[in-house]
Amino acid sequence: MGDLPADVLAAYLDHLRMQGRSEMTLRGRRGALGRLARQLPGPVLEATAADLLAWRQAMTVGPVSVRSYVSHVQQFYAWAVRSGLLSSSPAAGIPVPRIGRRLPRPIGTEDLFTAVAGAPDRIRLWLVLAAWCGLRAKEIALLRRECLLLTSAPPVLLVATGATKGWHERTIPLARFTLDEIAAAQLPVSGWCFARSDGRPGPNRPAHVSALVNAYLRDRGIPATLHMLRHWFGTEAYAVYRDLRAVQELMGHASVQSTQGYADWNRAAAAATVEALPVPPRLRVVGER
Description:
- With 289 residues, this protein is mostly helical.
- Helices cover 51% and strands 3% of the residues.
- β1 and β2 form a beta hairpin.
- α5 runs antiparallel to α6 and α10 runs antiparallel to α11.
- It is globular, with a radius of gyration of 24 Å.
């Protein structure tokens, strides 16, 4: 088992803080490097390209997770090179799988309505924020009461720096249905909207929010996850005006290509398009003389 000197890890995390990375990002990097250290045969800073290739080959997670883990490790070693701790990065050539374009996977509308109708109070509002505001688990977990701008015209929800996945804040107009759900939830007047159930300070972890919602959906026999409600938001929002740029802004994507993975195309229109293609007067059935 390898190790990573505490002072090196502290210096790396300080570097990330100076870049403006969130504490949640820092926890993710710390965890990734801890797992790497446990899986290497020697110290992290003495790892060879062969050591890291063996680490990569031992992975059993999906392609998206592989790319994430490798990215964490490559960024650490790149920093180590810039800091003069290494002359070159042993992680530079780690192969990663290609990720093809993925189709949207929205929850079914009937399933969504069923889930909302039967949900306990806190989970109900989480479902509403995911489906009618398009929030990620992180954005729900880190939502502060001050970011619900209910007296603005129109009322909006601010996804603030630190709660976002990237760097850009965004506002999401709040529909009357969502406003009614927020009012019914009796949120605190300030601070985190959703207190931890264990009484400890600070916000819930995004993984905890996802796990609770996913368990609830599974127990109801609904084949969906929390993130599929965000897919539903993107799909339904796109269906209103077919404005992909507007949906991109609502969802907080850096590129419209990312939005295409959430905003499902109109399948009825696609079927009608195929049906409208010209055909010969009569197609001969196979085997017909």
